UniProtKB/TrEMBL annotation, chain A:
Family: Belongs to the tubulin family.
A molecular function GO annotation: GTP binding
Subcellular location as annotated: Cell projection, Cilium; Cytoplasm, Cytoskeleton, Microtubule organizing center, Centrosome, Centriole; Nucleus
UniProt name for this protein: Tubulin delta chain
Principal subcellular localization: other
One GO CC annotation: microtubule
TrEMBL record, chain B:
CDD domains: epsilon_tubulin
Keyword Ion transport listed: no
Protein name: Tubulin epsilon chain
Species annotation: Conger conger (Conger eel)
Localization (cell): Cytoplasm, Cytoskeleton
Keyword annotations from UniProtKB, A to Z: Cytoplasm, Cytoskeleton, GTP-binding, Microtubule, Nucleotide-binding
Protein origin, superkingdom: Eukaryota
Classification of source organism: Eukaryota, Metazoa, Chordata, Craniata, Vertebrata
Pfam families xref list: Tubulin, Tubulin_C
Domain Tubulin/FtsZ GTPase: 55-277
Location of the Tubulin/FtsZ 2-layer sandwich domain: 279-414
Single GO BP term: microtubule-based process
GO cellular component, one term: microtubule
Length: 448, 475
C-alpha cells in the first residue's frame, strides 16, 4: 500500500524533504541487511509505500509539493535531486509567485479556493499512480500562512475528494516566541478546522525538537535543517514497514488504518504526540549499545510524565492505583487514551512492553487491552541498532494547546490584528467558533 | 518571485532613491557573479533589449544581463536633481518614460505639491505607474520615498500615495519618509509634515520614518570611529552603512553618506524577499506581523552593525553585540528610545551567517529588558536570509512598532501649533486652489488622535493586565 505525501508551505516542504531522505537512506541500508530475505522484503515494502519507479529506473517520491512562492520548492527539489537516490517528480509541484504573508485568512480564503483545482489534480495524479492507497499524509506548520491556511483548505478538499481514505496531518507547532507574531491566531484557526476533517493530527513542537537537538544531539548552532531532521527521524520510524499484531509474518499492509484504529478511537480526541529513544549524534552511535529494558523503562516514564526527551525525566511520578477517579490523579501524571509503541532493531521479539499495558496509564472508560498496541521490525532504523518510538494520544499536548489558545484569546480580547483577517473574509464570529471548538478539545483532554 | 516598484518624489526622495539604485546594483553584482538575469534581480530590475526600437525596449526573461532598467518612477517638480541623475553614472538604469518633472518647484508648500501639481499631473503619474506595473508579472509592493518637510516630497508624495491606493488597492504601500530635524531651515516644514502625516496615517500600509538628525549622528559616529586610527579597529571601507564604495558613483555628494543609510534600510528590508534563506520573510509578512491596528503602522528601524572591522577573527560576542546594539538609542533611525517605551511588536531581519539558535539565544537574552504590550508578550517576528550585505558576514535590521515614535509626533505637533496659533504663512497655503483651512484642522486632529492612540497603549505599560476571561465549557 502506498502513502501520498502532500507538503505545504516552507516548513512542510523542508520537513518532507528530510523525511524522504531518512526513508530512502534507511531503505537503502536495508538491502545490506542479513538475512537478505528480510532486508529485501523491508526494502520492497518501504519502496512501494513512499516511492515509485519510473521506466528509466529513477525513484520519485510519492509526494506533491505546494507553496505560494517558488524559492523553497526550487531549493527542496534541487536538494532532493542532489541525493542521487531519489527525487521529486518533475511535474508534482505547484507554486505561485507571492506567499500568503503569514495570514491564515489569505491562505484559506484566497489562495486555497483559487488553486483548489490545480492542487487537486496533482494529488489525483499521484494517487492514481498507487496500486492501493493507504492514505494521505500532509505536512505543514500551523504558524505561517501557506502551510496553515492553504493546508487547512486543501485538507478539507482532500476529505471531500477521498472520503474513505485515511488522512493524517503532521503539524509543526511554532516556537513559543520569535517566528510569527500572529502564530497563535493561525494555529487556533488551523487546528479548529482540521479537527473537523482530519482523521488524526500528529504534532511536533519546535521547542521540544530544538531541545532535543541541543541536549541529545549536541548540536551547537542549531539550524532548521537540524530540527527538521529530528522530526523526519521520528516520522520515519512511525511510517516505515513494521509487523503489527494482525500481520505476524508480513509487513503491515495498512499502516495508516492500523495507526488510526489503534490511536483514534473517539472523534473528540485526535491529537497525537511522538517521542523516540534513543536520539544521539550519529558519531556516538557506533560506541553505544542499548538493551530493550534500558530503552523502554525511560520511555514509559517519559510517557507518564509527558517528557519528550530522555533527559530531565521526573522519576518520582508514578501511575496512580487503578480505580481512583480522575480527581485523585496525581498532578504531573499524564493520562493516555491510547498508545502505539514501535520497536525496531536487534532482538526485537525479546523486548517486553508490558509496562505500557498497565490500565492505570489509561482513562477508565476504554476496554483494557484496546488502548495499547505494538509494532515491531527486526531491522535497525536509521542506523540505530535498537530504537523505540511511542505515538501517544494523551494529555501531553494539553498544556501547549492551552497556552496557545490563551495567548490567542488575550490578543483577540483587544482585537489586535483582527483587521488583517477580516480583510480576507474571516469574521469575528469565525474566530469565536474556532475558540469554542478548541476550548471543547481542551476540556475533553483535561477530563480524561 | 514578486516585483516591487520604487516611486521617488522630490529632491530628497530622488537623492535617496539614487543611492538605493547604486547600492542595489552593487549588492546584486556581488552576489550574482555570472551576470545572469536571475529572479533576485528581477524584483527591482527589468532586463531589457534596448536595440528594439519601440521606445522603451522589451523585457527579456532570464538569460544574460543585457541592459538593466530600474523598476522606478522618478517625480520632481524641479529639474535639478533628476537631471543630475540622468547625467550621472546611473543614467542607463532609467529612461525618459519613467520621469515626471516640472521646472518651478513647489516652494516648500504642501498645498502646491498636493493640490496644484497633484491635479495637474494626476493623469501623467497614473500613466507612468501603470506602465511600470505592466512590466511586472507579480507586483507586490510600492516603495514610496519622500521627505516630510518640503513641498514636492510631502505634498505630491502623499498625493501619489492616494493614487496608488486608488489604482492598485491590493498592492502593499511602504513609505520611507524623511522627517525634518527640529532646526530645519524650511520654516513651513511643520505644516508640510503634519499635512502629509494625515495621508500617511490613512493611506499607507507601513511607514518607515527616518529623521535627518539621527542620520547625521550615525554618520558622525562612523566617521569618528574611522579616524581614531587605532590598530585593531580599522574599519573595512566598503562595509559601513554610509559607504557607497564599490558602486558606480565615484564622487561623493554632501548627503550621500546619510542617504546610503536609508538605501541600506531598504535593501535589508527587501533582502529576504529577494534572496533565499532558511526562514524567509516576505514583504507582506512585515505588515501582517507588525501592524496590530491599521493606523498604528509607523515602524522604528535600526541597522547594525554600522561597520565591520577589517580584523577578520570575529568572536561570537560581536554577533550578540549586533543584537544588543539594535535596541540601543543611538542606532535608531529616528530619535527615539524603544527600550524605555512600549513594544507592540518587533521584527528581526537577519542576513548572513546566523543560525536559528543564535536568534533564539539573543531573543531570550534581550526579552527581559524590553517592555512588550500585555497581549503580545511574545511579539517577535524573525527572518533569516542567507545572503549578507556587501562587506559584512552578517547584519541585522530591527523593525519595531513601538510607542517611542510618539515624542517625534508630539514635537511635530508643537512646532505646528507655534506657527498655526499665529496663522503664520497660512495665506501661502490658502491661496492654492482646493486648499482650505479645514485641511489644517483635519490634519491636526488626525495627528492628535494618533498621539492619543499611542498614549492609551502607553498607559497600559507596567500595569499587570490579567488574562482575558476564557470561554467555559460545560462538562
Amino acid at each position: 500500500m502506498s502513502i501520498v505525501t502532500v507538503q505545504l508551505g516552507q516548513c512542510g516542504n523542508q520537513v518532507g524533504q528530510e523525511l524522504f531522505d531518512v526513508i530512502s537512506n534507511d531503505t537503502h541500508d536495508a538491502q545490506r541487511y542479513k538475512p537478505s530475505a528480510l532486508g529485501k522484503a523491508y526494502h520492497v515494502c518501504s519502496q512501494e509505500r513512499f516511492l515509485h519507479e519510473s521506466i528509466t529506473g529513477e525513484l520519485s517520491a510519492r509526494a506533491v509539493l505546494i507553496d505560494m512562492e517558488p524559492k523553497v520548492i526550487t531549493q527542496t527539489m534541487a536538494t532532493a535531486a542532489k541525493s542521487g537516490r531519489w527525487k521529486y517528480g518533475d511535474q508534482s509541484f505547484f507554486c505561485q509567485k507571492q506567499g500568503s504573508g503569514n495570514n491564515w485568512a489569505n491562505g484559506f480564503c484566497v489562495h486555497g479556493p483559487r488553486h483548489e483545482e490545480a492542487v487537486g489534480e496533482l494529488v489525483r495524479r499521484e494517487v492514481e499512480r498507487c496500486d492501493r492507497l493507504a492514505g494521505i499524509l500532509t505536512l505543514m506548520s500551523v504558524a505561517g500562512g501557506t502551510g496553515s491556511g492553504v493546508g487547512t483548505y486543501i485538507t478539507q478538499c482532500l476529505r471531500d475528494a477521498y472520503p474513505h481514505s485515511f488522512l493524517l496531518n503532521q503539524l509543526t507547532w511554532p516556537y513559543g516566541t520569535g517566528e510569527v507574531i500572529v502564530q497563535n491566531y493561525n494555529s487556533v484557526l488551523t487546528l479548529s478546522h482540521l479537527y473537523q476533517c482530519s482523521d488524526a493530527i500528529l504534532v511536533h513542537e519546535n521547542d521540544t525538537v530544538h531541545r532535543i537537538c541541543a541536549q541529545l544531539m549536541n548540536i551547537k548552532h542549531i539550524s532548521f535543517s537540524d530540527v527538521n531532521k529530528v522530526i523526519a527521524h521520528q516520522l520515519g520510524s512511525v511510517l516505515q514497514p513494521a509487523h503489527t499484531a494482525h500481520t505476524h509474518s508480513q509487513y503491515s499492509r495498512n499502516p495508516m488504518g492500523e495507526l488510526m484504529a489503534g490511536l483514534v478511537c473517539h472523534p473528540e480526541y485526535r491529537l497525537l504526540s511522538v517521542c523516540s529513544v534513543p536520539q544521539m549524534p550519529s558519531s556516538s552511535l557506533a560506541y553505544s549499545t542499548f538493551t530493550w529494558p534500558g530503552l523502554l523503562k525511560p520511555l514509559r516514564q517519559m510517557l507518564i510524565t509527558s517528557t519528550k526527551m530522555e533527559e530531565g525525566i521526573d522519576w518520582q511520578v508514578r501511575a496512580p492505583p487503578v480505580g481512583q477517579g480522575a480527581a485523585q490523579k496525581l498532578s504531573g501524571f499524564n493520562t493516555s487514551l491510547a498508545n502505539l509503541l514501535i520497536l525496531r532493531g536487534k532482538d526485537v521479539s525479546s523486548a517486553n512492553a508490558c509496562g505500557f499495558l498497565d490500565p492505570a496509564l489509561y482513562c477508565p472508560w476504554l476496554p483494557a487491552g484496546g488502548a495499547f498496541s505494538t509494532w515491531r521490525s527486526q531491522l535497525p532504523f536509521n542506523r540505530y541498532e535498537k530504537s523505540a518510538t511511542l505515538v501517544s494520544n494523551s494529555q501531553s499536548l494539553l498544556r501547549p494547546l492551552d497556552h496557545m489558545v490563551g495567548k490567542a484569546w488575550n490578543m483577540f480580547a483587544s482585537r489586535a490584528y483582527v483587521h488583517q483577517y477580516t480583510k480576507f473574509g474571516i469574521t469575528e464570529e469565525d474566530f469565536l467558533d474556532s475558540f469554542t471548538c478548541l476550548e471543547q478539545v481542551i476540556s475533553s483532554y483535561k477530563h480524561l | 518571485m514578486t516585483q516591487s516598484i520604487v516611486v521617488q518624489v522630490g529632491q530628497c526622495g530622488n537623492q535617496v532613491g539614487c543611492r538605493f539604485w547604486d547600492l542595489a546594483l552593487r549588492e546584486h553584482a556581488h552576489v550574482n557573479k555570472k551576470g545572469i538575469y536571475d529572479e533576485a534581480l528581477s524584483s527591482f530590475f527589468r532586463n531589457v533589449d534596448t536595440r528594439r526600437n519601440d521606445g522603451e525596449g522589451s523585457d527579456i526573461a532570464g538569460g544574460k544581463i543585457r541592459c538593466l532598467k530600474a523598476r522606478a518612477v522618478l517625480i520632481d517638480m524641479e529639474e535639478g536633481v533628476v537631471n543630475e541623475i540622468l547625467q550621472g553614472p546611473l543614467r542607463d538604469v532609467f529612461d525618459s518614460t519613467q520621469l515626471i518633472t516640472d521646472v518651478s518647484g513647489s516652494g516648500n508648500n504642501w498645498a502646491v505639491g498636493h493640490k496644484m501639481y497633484g491635479s495637474a499631473y494626476r493623469e501623467q503619474i497614473v500613466e507612468r505607474l501603470r506602465k511600470a506595473a505592466e512590466h511586472c508579472d507579480c507586483l507586490q509592493c510600492f516603495f514610496l520615498i519622500h521627505s516630510m518637510g518640503g513641498g514636492t516630497g510631502s505634498g505630491l508624495g502623499s498625493c501619489v500615495l492616494n493614487l496608488l491606493e486608488e489604482e492598485f488597492p491590493d498592492v502593499c504601500r511602504f513609505v520611507t519618509a524623511v522627517y525634518p530635524s527640529a532646526e530645519d531651515d524650511v520654516i513651513t516644514s511643520p505644516y508640510n509634515s503634519v499635512l502629509a502625516m494625515q495621508e500617511l496615517t490613512e493611506h499607507a500600509d507601513c511607514v518607515l520614518p527616518v529623521e535627518n538628525q539621527s542620520l547625521v549622528d550615525i554618520v558622525n559616529k562612523i566617521k569618528h570611529m574611522a579616524h581614531t586610527g587605532k590598530p585593531g579597529s580599522v574599519i573595512k571601507k566598503d562595509s559601513t552603512v554610509i559607504s557607497g564604495q564599490g558602486g558606480v558613483s565615484k564622487s561623493e555628494k554632501p548627503f550621500d553618506a546619510m542617504n546610503n543609510i536609508v538605501a541600506n534600510l531598504l535593501l535589508n528590508l527587501t533582502s529576504s524577499a529577494r534572496f533565499e534563506g532558511s526562514l524567509n520573510m516576505d514583504l507582506n509578512e512585515i505588515t501582517m506581523n507588525l501592524v496590530p491596528f491599521p493606523r498604528l503602522h509607523y515602524l522604528v528601524s535600526s541597522l547594525t552593525p554600522l561597520y565591520t572591522l577589517a580584523d577578520v577573527s570575529i568572536p561570537t560576542r560581536r554577533l550578540d553585540q549586533m543584537f544588543t546594539d539594535a535596541f540601543s538609542k543611538d542606532h535608531q533611525l529616528i530619535r527615539a528610545d524603544p527600550k524605555n517605551s512600549l513594544y507592540l511588536a518587533c521584527a528581526l531581519m537577519v542576513r548572513g551567517n546566523v543560525q536559528v539558535s543564535d536568534l533564539r539565544r539573543n531573543i531570550e537574552r534581550l526579552k527581559p529588558s524590553l517592555p512588550f504590550i500585555s497581549w503580545n508578550q511574545e511579539g517577535w517576528k524573525t527572518g533569516l536570509c542567507s545572503v549578507p550585505p556587501v562587506g559584512h558576514s552578517h547584519s541585522l535590521l530591527a523593525l519595531a512598532n513601538n510607542t517611542c515614535v510618539k515624542p517625534t509626533f508630539i514635537d511635530l505637533k508643537d512646532r505646528f501649533m507655534r506657527l498655526y496659533k499665529k496663522k503664520a504663512h497660512l495665506h501661502h497655503y490658502l491661496h492654492v486652489e482646493g486648499m482650505e483651512q479645514g485641511c489644517f484642522t483635519e490634519a491636526l486632529s488626525s495627528l492628535s488622535s494618533l498621539i492619543e492612540e499611542y498614549s492609551q497603549l502607553d498607559a497600559t505599560k507596567n500595569l499587570l493586565v490579567p488574562d482575558a476571561p476564557r470561554m467555559n465549557i460545560a462538562t
